[in-house]
């Protein structure tokens, strides 16, 4: 299972899965297991369509500083640009990830309270961006702002029971599904290796007769 929060989640999860899905050659096939063994993904306020708040650098920097100590996180301009609505980079990631979504159980969570940005309060990621209406996915709001939506201090914290229930379901179902995937993938990769070897041998034979 994987959990994702804001831009880093979309970048790391979607890109890693897209990359690992295509890694099937012998020397790097072990990367393919990332794709094969991922059963579910839980997104917390991840801006699948970007965030209008990213257009103001100071607002986003202030948001990030509330969640992560400055000495740990250095906000880069490229990350800020990547979070903006209609960003080409964000769209490319979404396009790569979209065909793969059918392979996973996915739960989208969105913030239901506005985040205090000192001079104003607003939603950092809208419901439409955080929880797109897609077939065979789950979605739910959490009664917290963006920085608090995945911080559960108690069992009765907003959204805690919903999140835990989903994780328990996924954890229960994942072993059986992943085991089947691994078996099928290993068989497919063996067949691919055999085909590649036969083609290579054929090329050598053709070259010897030319």
What structural class should be given to the helix and strand makeup? alpha/beta
Uncertain segments: 4-8, 71-80
**Largest sheet entry:** 4 strands, parallel
Strand order of the largest sheet: 1-2-3-6
Mean pLDDT: 77
Rg, alpha carbons? 21 Å
Question: What percentage of the residues does DSSP assign to strands (E)?
Answer: 5-15%
Enumerate how many helices there are, as a single number. 7
Task: Name its key features.
210 residues; alpha/beta; 4-stranded parallel β-sheet; two-stranded antiparallel sheet; 7 helices; elongated
Question: Explain this structure to me?
Answer:
It contains seven helices and six strands; from the N terminus they run βααβαααβββαβα. Helix 1 packs across helix 5. Strands 1-2-3-6 form a four-stranded parallel β-sheet. Strands 4-5 form a two-stranded antiparallel ribbon. With 210 residues, it is α/β, with parallel strands linked by helices.
How would you summarize this macromolecular structure in one to three sentences?
This protein is α/β, with parallel strands linked by helices and about 210 residues long. It contains 7 helices and 6 strands; from the N terminus they run βααβαααβββαβα. Strand 4 and strand 5 form a beta hairpin.
List the helices and strands and how they pair.
Blueprint: E1 2-5, H1 6-21, H2 32-36, E2 40-44, H3 57-67, H4 77-83, H5 88-97, E3 105-111, E4 115-116, E5 121-122, H6 127-130, E6 138-142, H7 160-208
Parallel strand pairs: 1-2, 2-3, 3-6
Antiparallel strand pairs: 4-5
